[in-house]
Write a structure and sequence with these properties.
By secondary structure, this protein is of the alpha/beta class. The protein is built from 8 helices and 7 strands.
Length: 215
């Protein structure tokens, strides 16, 4: 894990590794680490930009027990601004995606969950790792899962890990283009990760670099 990564001189048995929301769930489920829990009204953007907490790996923005009912609208606005600003910082190169903590939102109830997510964009979702459902039980669970399924379909994306790909041929590019067009037709997205330098050069020469998203 990247926990304690800032402590470079520590004699780790296994050296820290990088992870993000797209990491395989078999590893990601153990990656919570140091977590900052705060009300959704907390302005935490600058702390992320300044890397104020080097050991921070996860943050939870709360709309429920840490947030008064009358403050929920302001909390939603603040969280939407956070996601939008992070997207802008990453696109401008001011911030690296891997420098951003895992972000989790603790919703207040199903109604608030639906209201908040109705305002999300695909760019914003790129920074959300999970939603935490309060007082989850057999009565309200079905509603939460049904809406979560709707969100998955709405923000559908295909992620290809190219770690083992050393070179891509014209046939591979055709397959990639078909996948891209298929995701575009359903308003989804195609994301590539762990692309090596040689493959990236092929993407740049062929124009694929301008079509695809890299994480």
């Amino acid at each position: 894990m990247r926990h304690q990564k800032y402590n470079e001189n520590y004699p780790f048995v296994i050296k820290p590794i990088e992870f993000d929301k797209y990491t395989d769930i078999s590893l990601l489920r153990y990656a919570l680490g140091a977590t900052m829990y705060m009300p959704g009204t907390k302005d935490f953007l600058q702390a992320i930009i300044d890397k104020k907490y080097p050991g921070l790996t996860t943050m939870v923005m709360c709309f429920e027990d840490a947030c008064k009912l009358e403050d929920v609208p302001a909390a939603e606005e603040n969280c939407l601004h956070l996601l939008e600003a992070l997207d802008q910082k990453v696109k401008s190169g001011e911030l690296l995606y891997e420098e951003i903590p895992l972000i989790i939102f603790r919703v207040r109830n199903l109604e608030q969950f639906k209201h908040f997510t109705s305002r999300l964009t695909k760019d914003m979702v790129h920074f959300i790792t999970a939603f935490n459902f309060p007082k989850f039980n057999s009565t309200n669970g079905e509603g939460y899962y049904a809406h979560l399924k709707e969100l998955t379909e709405r923000f559908d994306s295909l992620i290809l890990d190219m770690k083992e790909l050393e070179y891509i041929s014209s046939a591979g590019l055709r397959i990639l283009k078909r996948a891209y067009m298929a995701m575009r037709r359903k308003e989804g997205s195609l994301k590539l990760k762990n692309v090596n330098k040689m493959v990236m050069e092929v993407f740049e020469v062929t124009g694929f670099a301008g079509l695809l998203q890299f994480i």
